[in-house]
Amino acid sequence: MKRVIVIGGGAAGMMAAYAAAKTWNAAKKAECRDRQVQEEGEILLLEKNEKLGKKVFITGKGRCNVTNACAIEDFFQNVISNKKFMYSAFYTFDNRAVMDFFEQAGCPLKTERGERVFPVSDHSSDVIVALERRLKSEGVCVRLHTKVKTLLTEKGMIKGVLLEDGTPKEADAVIVATGGISYPLTGSTGDGYRFAKEAGHQIKPLLPALIPFEIREDWCRDLQGLSLRNAAVTLKEGKKELYSGFGEMLFTHFGVSGPLILSAGSMYSKKVNKTSGTAPVQLFIDLKPALSAEQLDKRLLRDFEENKNRQFKNSLGGLFPAKMIPVMLEMSGIRPEKKVNEITREERKQFVSIIKSLPLTVTGTRPIKEAIVTMGGIDVKEINPSTMESKIIKGLFFAGEVIDVDALTGGFNLQAAWSTGYLAGENAGNTIKAENQNDSILKI
User: Fold this and answer.
1) Of 131, 148, 275, 384, which is most buried by a Cβ count within 10 Å?
2) What separation in angstroms does the CA of 253 have from each of 231, 258, 369?
C-alpha cells in the first residue's frame, strides 16, 4: 500500500494531510471509479498530543487570526525571513483560498481592523473543528498519542518513520510539520529540527519571533495593564532604525507587549547581535501619531489657554489616560505645581518632544518559550520552494514553522503554515500518485 505520513497535527500538518488526501483521492477516482477512494492509513497523520491543533487553539488569544485579507502581493512585505522562498506556496494556496476553505468547511469568517481575519464565533476551536471535518471527509487516518522517534531513510530516499515505541511505519512520502520551539506545552519541542538534522539538513539559529520586550525603566512597570490602541513606535540601535510601526501596545510587569511590540520584537531578534556590545537599543513611543509636532504644539497651546490658572499636574486630563499622567509629569521635567501660564515656550517644546518620542531602553526579549513564533529553522536553500520537498532526501517534505520562515503579526504566520502545508501535501500526494502509475490499479 502506498502511504503519506504527516508528523504533527498543528496548522501546517492538518492542512498538509488534507491536501495529500485530496490529491491522492482525486487521482484514484480518475483511475478507477469503482475502487474504494480512501483505504485506512494511506494518508496517516501522527500527533503526539491528546488532540489536534493545541497551538492553533491558543492563537489570537483564543480567537485564531486565520489569515489576512490584504492583497496577496502585500503578504511579502510582512514576511521577515526568506520571503522569496514563499512565492510558490503563497500563490498556490493564497489567503482567498484559505478563507474559502474554512467557509466551505462550516467556519464563517469576518475581517477586522488591519484586514485580520477571524472566525465569526471568535472561537479558535471552530477553526480546528473545520479542519477535522475536512480530514474526516477525505479519509485521513489520525493517530493521537503517537510520537515519532526518528525518520527512516535509505540511499537518499525516505522509507518511513520509527515510532517512540519501536514500531516502524513505512511510507513513500513523509511531511515534517512539527512546529518550532515556542510554547513547548503545546507540543512544539523542536522534534522536527532533530529529524531534519539527522537527515542531513542545516538548521538556522533558533530565536524568538513575535516576542515582547523587557524594559529597563521602572516607570514602565507603573503603567502595567495600560493599553494604547493608537500608538506608533520606532526601534533603534544607536542611530540605526530597526523597525517602525503603528498599532496597539500594552505595558506589562516586565516591559511592553501587544501586537505592535511583537512585530518590533521580531525585528530585534533578526537584526540585533545581543553579544556584540554595540549601541544600546531604544524604543521610542509616539503617543500622538495623528498629530505632527507643530500640530501637537498648537493643541497644547489651546489646552494651556483653557487651563491657564491651573497647576500643570491638573491640566493633562484631556491628553493622556489617568494612569499615564504621573509618568508624563515626571518625564516632562516641568514642576507639577507650576501654573500653566508660567510654563515657558522651551518647556512646552520639550514636552512636545517627549510626547512624540517617549524613550524606553530595551534590555532584551522575553524567553523563546513565550514567543508566538520561532525564528530560524531548516535552511530554505535545502528545500525546493515549488514543492516543499527536501533537496537531500527524496520523498521528505517540510511545512510550517519548522522551516526558516517567519512574519509579522496579523495572520501572516498562519497563512504561511496553511500555504506550505497545502503545497507539501499536494506534492506528497502527487509523489505516490506518480509512483502508482506503474502499478496495475485495476487488479487491486
Assistant:
1) 131
2) 19, 13, 18
